[in-house]
Structure formats: C-alpha cells, structure tokens
UniProtKB/TrEMBL annotation:
Protein name, as recorded: ABC transporter domain-containing protein
Family statement drawn from the similarity comment of this UniProt entry: Belongs to the ABC transporter superfamily.
Lineage: Bacteria, Pseudomonadati, Pseudomonadota, Gammaproteobacteria, Lysobacterales
Residue spans crossing the bilayer: none
Domain of life: Bacteria
Amino acid sequence: MKSVGYKYPGGHQAVSDLSLKLGPGILGLLGPNGAGKSTLMRILATLARPTAGQVTWNGVDIAEQPNALRVALGYLPQDFGVYSALSAREFLAFLAAVKGLSGVEAKTRVETCLAQVGLSDAADRRLGDFSGGMRQRVGIAQALLNDPTLLIVDEPTVGLDPEERMRFRHLLTDLAGQRLVILSTHIVSDVEASATQLAVMAEGRLRFHGTPEQLLGMA
Ligand code: ADP
Ligand code: ADP
C-alpha cells in the first residue's frame, strides 16, 4: 500500500496517506471503532477502490487488475451470514460451486476446509443450530475454499466468549504458514500473542507498524 486514502462519497475521509508493505505471517490490525479498519480491509479485498494512492500485489496494481489478487484472496467480512437451514457441508458445497469449483475438487476442498476449522464432526448439522464461534469457523472455512495466500478477517471475535476467542486465535495461527493473514480487532488480546506484526490505526491514519514486542516496548 502506497499513500492509500479513501474518502466516502459523503465526504468522510476514512483512510489517509497509509503506506504498508506486508509479507507472510499474521498482521493484527488494531484500532478503535471508526478508525478505518473495515474500510482498509474492503480496499485490500478489492471491494472498494482507493480514492488516493496505490495497492500492489506481487507488483500488480490491483485497481487495474483486481483479479490478480482475487484468485489468491479469502475474505471473511464482518457481516458474514450463513443459511440457517443448510448443513455446514451443504453450505460450503454451495459456496464452492459459486466459486467455480466442481466435482471431486469441490468435494475435496470442502472436506479439507471443514477439517481445517475443526468442523468435520459437525458437518451435517444445521447451521441454525451452530454457536457463534462455530459459525465464524464456517466463515473461515468458506474463505479457505480457494486455498488463498491472502486471508482477510474482519473483527471475527465480536460476540464470541473467551473460550471461542482463544480457539479462534489458535486456528488463525495454524492457518498462517506461508499465507498473509490480516485480522482486524479492537481487542488487543486477540493479536498480542499470535500476530507477527501489528498495525495500529486511529482516525484513518497508521499510528504504528511493527512487532508486538516493539509496541509493548513503547508502552
Ligand atoms: P465498525 O465500527 O464495527 O466497523 P460501523 O458501525 O462503523 O462498524 O459500520 C457498520 C456498517 O455501516 C458498515 O457496513 C459501514 O460501511 C456502514 N457505515 C458506517 N458508518 C457509516 C456512515 N457514516 N454512513 C454510511 N454508512 C456507514
Ligand atoms: P472501523 O472498521 O475501524 O470501525 P470503518 O472503516 O468502518 O472503521 O469506518 C471508518 C470511518 O468511516 C468511520 O468514521 C465511519 O463512520 C466511516 N464510514 C464507514 N463506512 C461508511 C460509509 N459507507 N459512508 C460514509 N462513511 C463511512
């Protein structure tokens, strides 16, 4: 991201002059409500076009070629909804088809993703009977269907109890590997142990970027 800015049509400047270079690992994106985290994540997910600056992915400008990033992208938005009447397996099979996967490949990806989020045993239960934490894991499973190298997760722990939140932290750590996982939260404990890097936003601006140790050293 080079000098990225975003101004809403109404005139609100939600992101200002933000530059960041990222690689594999977990980036914890911290900041209070209204800091601009969701806006920035929508830009990175190619759902919003920056009104200033540039985002490049492996050297490609994503404003010009969004598909270069989309094929490598998994995204769990803040307002992700599930179809209550479907089982987890049915829902993921549906989304796999929507994403253009079919046949044995689709089946294999669905089972792999269910296993990755620890839902294989619950795969035939109705999503309407799932806990909030389980639903969020379904959200992660759908984001993993295309085996993305960039996984963007917007405030996934809102409304989860402490145990579910801990489980979620471990899951994201397992998923990081060679991926870049970007996790936004306003809860520091969600990311202080698991993130390899932290970015702190306030009023649309980047106030800090570095390791958790560096941030704690500043405190
Ligand atoms: P959060 O702070 O948890 O990210 P918000 O309350 O800021 O959530 O936003 C919730 C939804 O409302 C988002 O989809 C956002 O785009 C929209 N929204 C937030 N603020 C405004 C606004 N001033 N005008 C129009 N839509 C807004
Ligand atoms: P965060 O995710 O950190 O809570 P957001 O990116 O949702 O922050 O919002 C950043 C700022 O942009 C807030 O002041 C919010 O009210 C505003 N905003 C968000 N969505 C919209 C929108 N659709 N229209 C106008 N303003 C918005």
